[in-house]
Amino acid sequence: MSEVIVITSGKGGVGKTTTTANIGTGLAKLGNKVVLIDTDIGLRNLDVVLGLENRIVYNLVDVVEGNCRIRQALIRDKRCENLYLLPSAQTRDKTAVTPEQMKKLTDELKEEFDYILLDCPAGIEQGFKNAIAGADRALVVTTPEVSAIRDADRIIGLLEAAEMKKIDLIVNRIRMDMVKRGDMMSMEDVVDILAIDIIGVVPDDENIVVATNNGEPLVGSDCLAGKAYMNICRRVQGEEIPFLNLDSGNGFFKKLRAIFR
Amino acid sequence: MSILDKFTKKKSGENAKQRLKLLLVSERADCSPEIMEKIKNEIIGVISKYLDIDTEGLDIQITRNENEGVEGGSPALYANIPIKGQKTR
User: Fold this and answer.
1) What is the full DSSP assignment across B61-85?
2) Which of residues 51-80 of B touch A (CB under 8 A)?
3) Which residues of B fall within a CB distance of 8 Å from A192?
4) A68 is in which domain, residue-wise?
5) Does residue B13 belong to the interface with chain A, where contact is any CB pair within 8 Å?
6) How many domains does chain A divide into?
7) pLDDT tens digit at each of 261 positions of chain A
8) Spatial CB neighbours of A150, under 8 Å, sequence gap ≥ 6
9) How far is B13 from chain A (nearest CA, A)?
10) What is the CATH number of the domain that holds A103?
11) Set of chain A residues whose Cβ sits within 8 Å of the Cβ of B71
12) Which residue in the set A153, A182, A185 is minimally distant from B27, CB to CB?
């Protein structure tokens, strides 16, 4: 049974696109046939995060307007053969597509793919409405900051009003050193405030920046963020996976303790 | 920042959490002053049918329900309506 998942946040810059790229790649690595749709018309970025920016011929608006068939617009990932991208249009705006058209598109893609992931633009306007139209479930990305959490709460309210069947939270860019000092809200704090189910927590990891520089999602690699993303993918599939201990940093005492353990 | 400040000052994480909780209570209720005014007038309308009330002294607001076990409580609509007497039929 296939599932349409929208990745959204309200606030910009919290990591929606990176999250979409990593969860999509991870689900494909787990053997699913996955298509990622960039719904941020006018400000596309999922292509560049995936390293597929040079292979775009047709885009989402071309498909919706009937300038090409869906097949022609889908870009197959070079490293991961089950993974496809439907890029966004760069020279149009959000009004080029309607929620009804998005619903029709995702319904068509459901016939061929196990997972359809929609990278939602920031904001609560037309782009957001387009992105959630055909979605069965939502992953709300936030960071442990007041502005991101406030916007996430607003988004959750709008998703509930739109009768989204399942809404899960991802807390991104958490820094355990700051949480320990009491200078950052913990995952538990964020869950307490937003009162929705948590599906994953991703540490602030330099490797993410490196991976994005190279256009290669790091899901499944041996760093904390890579493991955290893979765990989210497994939970999306319905597996019960315990949360990572993000506190296994590189401190001197940690290493010392590890030796004596 | 003096040394004393360092010990007495609330941690910023805790501060952020408390500020957000308060902010989101009112935002979730989505009660603009206009809506509150409408609610107030309708309550006056309904209760005035049966009781003689002091419309000047009437006070309604959104607060937290502190009786619940949850920390911070859940949002509640609080109304204080002074009654002058029963309406004579």
Assistant:
1) EEEEETTSSSTT-EEEEEEE--EEE
2) 71
3) 17, 71
4) 3-260
5) yes
6) 1
7) 899 999 999 999 999 999 999 999 999 999 999 999 999 999 999 999 999 999 999 999 999 999 999 999 999 998 999 999 999 999 999 999 999 999 999 999 999 999 999 999 999 999 999 999 999 999 999 999 999 999 999 999 999 999 999 999 999 999 999 999 999 999 999 999 999 999 999 999 999 999 999 999 999 999 999 999 999 999 999 999 999 888 755 556 655 665 665
8) B20, B23, B24, B27
9) 5
10) 3.40.50.300
11) 192
12) A153
Choose the closest CB to A149 out of B11, B20, B71.
Answer: B20
* Residue contact B20–A150, C-beta within 8 A: yes
* Nearest CB to A153; choose among B11, B19, B24: B24
Inter-CA distances, A4 with A107, A111, A244, B2, B49, Å: 9, 11, 26, 54, 52
Say yes or no for a CB contact (<8 Å) between B11 and A181.
yes
Instruction: State how far the Cα of A20 lies from the Cα of A23, in Å rounded to an integer.
Output: 5
How does A88-112 read in b/e, with b if 16+ C-beta sit within 10 Å? bbeebebebbebebbbebbeebbee
Residue A149 near residue A12 (C-beta atoms within 8 A): no
ipTM above 0.90, yes or no: no
For residue A208, the number of C-alpha atoms closer than 13 Å in the C-beta half-sphere is 20
First to last CA, chain A: 45
Q: Is B19 on the interface with A (CB under 8 A)?
A: yes
Contacts of A149 in chain B (CB under 8 A): 20
Whether A251 has its CB under 8 Å from any CB of chain B: the answer is no
